[in-house]
Amino acid sequence: xxxxxxxxxxxxxxxxxxxxxxxxxxxxxxxxxxxxxxxxxxxxxxxxxxxxxxxxxxxxxxxxxxxxxxxxxxxxxxxxxxxxxx
Length: 86
What we know:
Mean pLDDT: 95
Oligomer: single chain
Number of domains: 1
Shape: globular
Order of helices and strands: HHHH
Low-confidence stretches: none
Structural class: mainly alpha
Strand content: under 5%
Helix content: 55-70%
């Protein structure tokens, strides 16, 4: 959700958004360390999670969900990459 907001509302970017993106990436990385099999699960549910993120981004931004692409504009690698920002 935050990556979508960051990409599609550049005029509203804040340090808080970047911090939230970093925090959630760290949580995912820790979960993968604790349970390596979750990486395969992440790959399996990635598209489903993206659809939920579109709805959350729509709720938070007030933009119609159709404003965000049907297919995720970020790869799973982008989502997990601590240095990637769109």
